[in-house]
Amino acid sequence: MPLPTLTWRAFPPVVLAANTTAAILDAIQANSSVATYADGTPRQPAGTPGSTSWTWSKEQSGGVTVAAYGSPPPVVLPDVTIPTSYIIAGASSLPPSGPTMLTTLATTPDSNAVNRLNIAMVKNPGAYIGGGVGWYAANPFTSGSFSGYVNLTQATTAVTFVTLRMWECQEAFICQLLTAGGAASYPFGGGALIDPLSTTATDDETDGRLYSIFSVGSGGAMSTTTLSNTGASQYGPFIGRTGANNSRFQTFTPGTAVTVPHTRFGVWSGLSSSLVSPNGDLPKIPFPLYATGTTTTFGTVLGAAGQLRQIYITRNSLAGTAWTNGATTVGYLLGANQTAAAEAMLLAY
Amino acid sequence: MALPVLNWRLLTPRTFSGSTINDLLNMLASMGQSTTYADNSPRVPGTNSAWTWNIDNANAVQPGVTTAIYGVPPINALNMGYIISGSTAASSPGGTYNTDTYNQNLLLLSMNKNSGTYTTWTNAAPFTTGQFSGMIRGTRITVITAGNSFYWYECEEAFIIICVLAGGSSVQTLMAGALVDPLSSAAANAETDGRLYSVLSSGSSTGLSTSFLSSTLTDTPFYSGTTNGDAHFFTFNVGAVSTTRNMRRMAAMTASNTFTLASGKPVLVPYQMNFQSTGQYAGQLRSMYVSKNGTTATAWNDNGTIYGYTLTGSATGSGEMLLFQY
Fold it and tell me: Contact B302/B295 with Cβ under 8 angstroms?
């Protein structure tokens, strides 16, 4: 039984005030106060049925933002979901201890570094500790199942991030940092991104979901061949690799605090700007995923996880484009480049 | 809007005991006209998943013996007709061919849209009216050998025949029907009933590879080669036209023997196709999914619950697998 249909909405793009971790975190958190989406529709309050509005807060140390943490809007009864929160954190100096990095990767875990952001998630969170020391506590949310951090992107001293794009839906969010002119893309996000297409207890959490975080990782920008690449040196969204500085896509194993890597299933071909239906419509091809254990071109993984929720493989496109059919918005394109069409995913409106 | 889910059923498998293509066609006719399924459940042609098949034994090339069987599905808004044919004649008995040419003792596969009365397969219009796809080679000549096993699956709108050579040395297949869901009913994307009508064959040159879902594109049946005897997979262009468009798979999918849900239940990954010549999107296979690796022509069941049936390139070991959902 498929999970409820998600409806993705886009924030207006934000030009970062500075190329710093603090400015990126401020921009993410500030979107929480935006009243109108990029298409002019209102952003409904989080308590409104069907709302897609996430709530983001920030933590500062000495007046400088060191973390942004957010939660999805509450789901209206009876479809109650497990409480989850997501945190993006990092600073220009190392904390005195921690933070808790994710250590269950099969090979080389990520490490915290100055000027480099990290992302993590928690199930059943307690109170956020904050106070400038929370983000590097063993569990910044006091209680619950904390995943540990993975690297978000490269350091701001290595890449000049200029623009933030951000999308949200009822149960997930996606961000994308872009360099000048959108020549390079660094996507990340979190939430109930995966539909396990099963209601069997071992296949999903008690609410039927699987909770995940993903990042392009600290090794490079999103590949223009993110779907057709065989994976040896690829960076991109929804690719869970286990080597040093790789792209990450970690999902909680149902009922536990342990996360496992997931990755796309299939080396895709036939992807081009011509990939439309004969009438010109954009195809919405389900994005299948692996969970850990089986051997693939990406390494060793184990079984299937399901498919992404309302995120589809589609024609090659410019990053950040809104696809419309007449006056109807079909969705938004998550791609590698704003100036040259490349392999892309559609976030369905 | 996705098309209705199909319910695949297995006819009672048969081991070929004859020696000619005519014997084989007779055996296939017997399977297609069966009144029970492999699980002994009743089968009433024209209802549920059961097709209706008839014999053509009046063709001039071999009068009085079976040179074709022709069938129609139980759901058939566009009056589709399908023909499996062939003869022992050394030279071509005529007829309309698609990509391949005639060769004696090879099964041929074809389809017709907006069909009238069946005449015979070597006529330019085998169903009197409508649009005829032309014939393609279905399988290798080696299928006409005693001891080979045949597995026939059918659903409301399509059928699949798998031949496993004696000893399991080769697996060959042919399929036909509304196999592909264009996921759109727009006029340019689908026929007026929302379907795309297709035929597929593994061709007369080779059988299925155990890695047929991930190997070189030209080495799979989900691709249309241009050489005589290659594998073919094409669909009618929409509308009252007899032209066809070749299709190909859109992903190389390498699974494994452990590619299941955590619960052990089967993974059902939709299999996507696009058009070879334009690169446009065609659709996804209907109620046929990429799943864990397995052995061909087996039923995947859990405590008596059948999930579906399998097509792989291996009859004795394990290979990449498509699951036809029960």
Answer: no
Is the model's pLDDT at A172 over the cut of 80?
A: yes
Q: What is the pLDDT of residue B218?
A: 74
CA distance A340 to A309: 26
B70 phi/psi in degrees, rounded to 5? -135, 140
**Between chains, do B254 and A296 touch, taking CB under 8 Å as contact?**
yes
Contact between B69 and B21 (Cβ < 8 Å)? no
- Structure pTM? 0.93
What is the Cα–Cα distance from A280 to A296, expressed in whole angstroms? 34
Lowest mean pLDDT among A192-206, B60-74, B133-147, B272-286: A192-206
**What is the rounded CA–CA span in Å between residue A98 and residue A66?**
14
| CB pair distance less than 8 Å for B279 and A283 | no
Q: Which two tokens stand for residue A198?
A: 């099963």
Q: What token pair was written down for A159?
A: 């890449």
DSSP state of B314: -
B72 secondary structure, DSSP code: E
What is the spatial distance between Cα A299 and Cα A225, in angstroms, rounded to a whole number? 18
- Predicted ipTM beyond 0.95: no
* pLDDT tens-digit readout, A26-84: 999 999 999 999 999 999 998 888 899 999 999 999 999 999 999 999 876 667 789 99
In the numeric block, which tokens belong to residue A78?
Answer: 């009876």
Q: Are A128 and A140 in contact (CB under 8 A)?
A: yes
Which residue in the set B256, B259, B265 is minimally distant from A198, CB to CB? B265
Of A298, A299, A340, nearest to A318 (Cα)? A340
Give the pLDDT band of residue A298 (cuts 50, 70, 90).
very low
The pLDDT score that the predictor gives to residue A294 is 44
Which of A277, A300, A301 should we substitute to test contact with B (largest number of B Cβ atoms within 10 Å)?
Answer: A277
Counting Cα atoms < 13 Å in the Cβ hemisphere of A11 gives 26
Identify the sign of the CA torsion A187, A65, A259, A211: negative
Asked whether the beta carbons of residue B250 and residue A285 sit closer than 8 angstroms, the reply is: yes
pLDDT band of A299, cuts 50, 70, 90? very low
Please, how many CA atoms are within 13 Å of residue A272, restricted to the half-sphere of its CB? 12
Strand partners, A14: A164
Contact A227, A205 (CB under 8 A): no
